Every structure is written in structure tokens, then in C-alpha cells.
Amino acid sequence: MILTIAWREFRSLFLSPLAWVILAVVQLILAFMFLGHIEQYLIWQSRLLGMDDAPGLTEIIVAPLFGNAAIVLLLIVPLITMRLVSEERRNRTLSLLFSAPISMTEIVLGKYLGILLFLLLVLCMIALMPLSLLIGSSIDLGLFASGLLGLGLLLAGFAAIGLYMSTLTQHPTVAAIASFGALLLFWILDWSGEGTAGNGSVLAYLSLLNHYEPFLRGIFDSADAIFHLLFIATFLVLSIRHLDADRMGA
Amino acid sequence: MNAEVLVDIKEVSRFYGDNQALKNVSFRVQKGEVLGFLGPNGAGKTTAMQIITGNLAPSSGSVTIAGHDLLEDPRAAKAAIGYLPEQPPVYRELTVDEYLDYCAALNRIAKSQCRPARETAKEKCGLSDVGRRLIGNLSKGYQQRVGLAQAVIHLPPVVVLDEPTVGLDPIQIREIRELIRELGKEHSVILSTHILPEVQLVCDYVQIINKGELVLSDSIGGLQHHLKGASHTVAFRQAPDLSVLEQIAGVKSVQREKEPYLRIFFEPDKDPTDEIVKLSVENKWGLYEMRPGRVSLEEIFVELTTDEPASQEAAA
User: Fold this and answer.
1) Are residues B158 and B189 in the same domain?
2) Does B107 share its domain with B16?
3) CB count, 10 Å around CB of B288?
4) Are residues B187 and B267 in the same domain?
5) What range defines the domain where residue B244 resides?
6) B81 and B206 co-located in one domain
7) B34 DSSP β-pair partners
8) Do residue A101 and residue B57 have CB atoms under 8 angstroms apart?
9) Under an 8 A CB cutoff, do A91 and B79 touch?
10) Taking residues B118-122, what's their average pLDDT?
11) Which residues of chain B neighbour A100 with C-beta distances below 8 Å?
């Protein structure tokens, strides 16, 4: 049942130009950045050769690419998630789901899964770029995998916030702006704390950035992964509760 | 009557903030009945429909669908219901076939059964020719039919329709009514509307709701029987004084209607027809027309849903 909803959500995205445009724009911008990083590497190459313990190809190209991808997608994900519930509410199609023999949890998970499918596609397209380096060179696949996993978890978190914001309103634009604001806030939460998660500050701990950066450096800390999973679960539960409360009309 | 009770609503109330939209509403619908739910705008019809279909939770009271409590066992209860809200819940970007397949899947129809279920629903609702068209490109009437097909695709015992004929042209309205009557043979149908003739045409039972309260609940037959006997409309060539007519046994009052008609109200069991005819012949009043004045559903409706029934009656 969850899969049915997810599949429709995924297919509906491609029935409007939105998904195609998003895929194209993300790919274009990131490809441009990717080329920029490669050029940088080529310029630095002679100097790197002379250094002991020089950073490798992956650290110079792949890690910054994933870092940039996170910022670009921070802008983009709210645009994909904004329609999830708000548009259905606006078009009054929500009652189709509410009067069908399915639970609220199934509805929310189905919609979330549909978006994850789309983000997985985005992730694959991004991953293709560093992988293309394999043709003429070799990259640190461990670092690459860790970065990809981090980006995947991060995007899943973005989608969860977006979904929750979409349950709050019936205007997709409002949902988009609200989720964008929330994401940005979680991102910059720790600007004053100088990006160190270990110093005990709550703000530093809540910052998404602090839990993403280790992945880019190739450090897989299960605490970071669990943080992301908890983050996702929190917003999914909030979405379910909100939709249920909506029905109660509290 | 030991027919199966499919919908059992017990003392359902619903508040929106301080505003009570439904006040202790209770009713039952048996298998194979078409129940008409009448009321002026804002009377609580849609709220009642939404509560029956589980789109809204009642503030108090219980809803039982085909033996399953809607709050305790929502999945089984909802599986027994098909719902067409005021606005058909269709996805404009899908084709009719895609949409109905999705609805079938949502209602847990097995994959192998999806296609036959879809084809049957399409055939029932006259959609066979438009299966491959985008719903967004269909006319309002066809979208309404798609909504209806969605409500019956899983052959639910109970079908709930909220103002299904609003915004349709007269031919489409007739077709949809035909369809509702057809549905009434196999399913129980709850129909909300503010169009009175519709109820008279398609329903077995009528309920009138006003300001959240049920003010009338009767079968169409009983209602008409109850109403028919109460007055006659007559026309005389030389009309006698009203006071003369009022003295006939059983006559309660006489009113002038549009010339040359008079309306004679009488006690339900004392029909003065014979007496009027006899007196007319004796006194040469020249009675040339007489027909039982049916109180239309409309009049009952107006009477029950306005605060001052007396003034309404006088105006009529």
C-alpha cells in the first residue's frame, strides 16, 4: 500500500515539468562546479606532486562537490516536497486517501518514500560525475561512498522537513518557503559555534552541517548517522500526528 | 424488518470551536436503501458525510459501518464505504484508467482483479470511451462521473454521495440520477443534496437536517401519504363566500389562491370532497376543477427549516 502511494507520487512528479527542470538544473549547476574543481586540481597538480602527504583527487574534487550539492539541494528539495500534502488539500483530493482503507502512517510513509525515490535518482545522477573520473584516474572509493551516504542521509532529512511543512498548509508556496527557512536555520544554527560538535553546545549539536561534514572527511560516525535517522523520524511522526489532528479538527 | 443495518449513527455531535455543527444526530441505513439527506446551506450535511466516511472524527457519538466501528476498526469500516465528496477528488494529471487503477489499489483490490474492477466501474458510470483521456481535460460532468466510478470501484456496501449533481447540465443530472437509482439496487446509498425533486425522484427515505439537528426522518411514501390528504385546490364558476365553505364538516380553513383557485384545508381523515360536490350541484356554484393539493417536499422543507413556520404558511 505504501508502495502504491509512493509510486504514484513518483510518477506524478514526472508528469509535470517540475521534476525534469529540477533534474536538469541541478545537474547543470553541479557539473559546472565539478569542472571548476577539476580545473583547480589541474592548476595545483604540479605543486601537489612536490608535497608530502598531499590531499588526493577525491579530497580536492569529490568532497567539495558533495558539499556544494548539499547547498544546492537545500534550495531545491523544498520545491519538490512543497506539493506533497498541501496541493492535495487544496484540490480536495486528500479525502480520497482519508476515506480509503489505509492508515495515516501509510499515507505519510508512502508520500515520503515517493520523494526519496526521486532524491535517489538525483543522488545517482550526482554520483555519476565523480565516478566518471574512474575512466582516467582512480578515486578513493571509501571516501566517495562515505560522502554519498552522508548526502543521502542529509537529503532524506531535508525531505522529512519538507513533508512536515507541507502538511501544515494548503499553499504549496508557503510550504516551500517554510521548509526552506527551516532547513537554512538548521544549517546555519552553529555559525557562532565554529563548527565543533564536541563542545557541548546544544545549537552545535542540532546543526545539520556538523553532522554532515564528518562524512565528507571520510569519517563514518554512527552517532552522526543516528542523528540523521532520528531527525527524519521526528518529522515523519510530526507529520502523521498533524494529519491525524487535522481530522480531529482540534 | 430484519434487513441488514449497514450504517448506524448514534448520537453524533461535532464541534468546530464553539460552533456545534451536528447535535446528537442518530440514524440508520439498511441494505438497499437510498437515503436522501436534505438541508439548507450550512446545515451540517457535508459535516455529516465527512464523519460517516471517516474524513472527520466526531466530537462524540459512534459510527458503525457494516458492523465495524469507524474509530476502533477504521480499516474494515472504510473498506465498506465509497465516498464522492462535493468536489470529485481526482488527480487532473492522470488519465481516467490510471486514476481508477490507483483507486482500486488504494482500496486493496488484488492486482489481477484491478482491470475487471476498473472496466466494470467505467461501464457503470458511462466512462468507457474516455479511459485514455486526461482527467483535467474532461468536462465537469465527466469528472463527476470519474469521482463516482472511484466511489464504487471496490463495490462497497455503502456509497456516500455529497451533492453529486451540482454543476451538471440537465441531461447529465438525469443520467447521474439514473445511475444513483441503479446503485441503490445493489448498494446502500446516502445522498446529500439541497435539490428537492432529486430526493423525491431517487430516494426511499428522507432526512431533513437544519442547524445540525435532524428535524424530519421519514420514508418518501409515508411522507407523501401524510401530506397528500391535507388540502384540495378547487375552482368554481360562481364561487360562494369563503365562510360558507368553512362551515362544511371537516374543513379547517379556506384560502384564496391565484384566481380562480381556492385552497381548502381539512382534517386528514375527514375528506369533504363529496360534500363539496353535492353543495356545488345544489347551489349552482359551478365546480369545474378539483385536485388534491399536494404539499410539495419543498413546503415541508421550508416549514421545517425556517424559524417561523406560521408566517411561511400564511405567505403560501
Assistant:
1) yes
2) yes
3) 11
4) no
5) 230-292
6) yes
7) B189
8) no
9) no
10) 91
11) 78, 103, 106-107
**Total structural domains in chain B?**
2
Confirm or reject contact between B79 and chain A (CB < 8 A).
Answer: yes
From chain B, pick out residues whose CB is under 8 angstroms from the CB of A248: 57
Q: How many beta-carbon pairs below 8 A join chains A and B?
A: 72
The verdict on B106 and B26 lying in the same domain is yes
For residue B57, the distance in angstroms to the closest alpha carbon of chain A comes to 5
Q: How far is B157 from chain A (nearest CA, A)?
A: 14
**Domain presence at residue B309:** no
DSSP letter, residue B296: P
Structural domain contains residue B102? yes
Chain position carrying cell 465516498 = B83
**What is the CATH classification number for the domain harbouring B12?**
3.40.50.300
Task: Taking residues A71-98, report their average pLDDT.
Answer: 91
- Write the single-letter amino acid at A217: R
Q: Are A111 and A160 in contact (CB under 8 A)?
A: no
Nearest CA in chain A to B57: A248
Last-in-domain residue among B207, B223, B239: B223
Residue written as grid cell 535517522: A229
Q: CA A116, CA A118: separation in Å to the nearest integer?
A: 5
Report the complex ipTM: 0.85
Question: What gap in Å lies between CA B7 and CA A125, rounded to an integer?
Answer: 53
Could you tell me the residue range of the domain that residue A67 belongs to? 2-248
Query: What is the pLDDT, as a whole number, of residue B168?
Result: 78
pLDDT of the residue at B314: 41
Contact B276, B234 (CB under 8 A): yes
Q: Are the beta carbons of B123 and B73 closer than 8 angstroms?
A: no
CB contact under 8 A, B75 and A98: no
Query: What's residue B225's pLDDT?
Result: 64
Contacts with A93 from chain B: Cβ below 8 Å: 89-91
Looking at the structure, do residues B177 and B235 belong to the same domain, yes or no?
no
- Are B15 and B154 in a shared domain? yes
The CATH number of the domain where B246 resides is what? 3.30.70.100
Using the beta-carbon criterion (under 8 Å), do B89 and A15 form an inter-chain contact?
Answer: no
Q: How many folded domains does chain A comprise?
A: 1
Look up the pTM and report it: 0.83
Same structural domain for residues B204 and B237?
A: no
Please indicate, yes or no, if residue B182 is contained in any of the structural domains: yes
Q: Does residue B159 carry a pLDDT above 80?
A: yes
pLDDT at B228: 57
The partner residue sitting opposite A99, judged by closest CB among B54, B87, B108, is B54
> What number is the average pLDDT over the span A92-109?
91
> A93, A96, A105: best mutation site toward chain B, by most B Cβ within 10 Å?
A96
Chain position carrying cell 360558507: B244
**Residue ranges of chain A whose CB lies within 8 Å of a chain B CB:** 1, 4-5, 8, 12, 15-16, 91-103, 247-249
Cβ–Cβ below 8 Å for A16 and B93: yes
The rounded Cα A94 to chain-centroid distance in angstroms is 26
Quote the CA–CA distance of B29 and B48 in Å, as a whole number.
14
How many other CB atoms are there within 10 angstroms of residue B15's CB atom? 15
Give how far A249 is from chain B: nearest CA, Å.
7
Q: Is residue B303 part of a domain?
A: no
